[in-house]
Amino acid sequence: MPADRRLPLWHPSEYLGEIGAAIVPCLLGLAHAAGRRGWAPGPTALVHVADEGGDRAAAIVRLSPGTPAPTCLGRAIGER
Question: Where are the domains of the chain?
C-alpha cells in the first residue's frame, strides 16, 4: 500500500474574496512565495481556477532553483 501522501489544499478566495480574473496572478504569486519560502512541501504547485459559467483552467508551476524572492516595492515580501 502506498504511503499517505496528502498535500495541502489552499483556498485563497476564502481570504481574498471573489476578485474575478485578478485571482490568477494572486494564485501564481502565492505558489511562488510558498515554494520560495518553504511553506509548500515541494517546488511544484497545481493552480486551478473556475468561473460560475463552468469555464476552467489549470497550470502546473514549478519554482526554478535560484529564483529570487517575490518583491513588493523593492523589498522581499515579508522582509521588514
Answer: 13-76
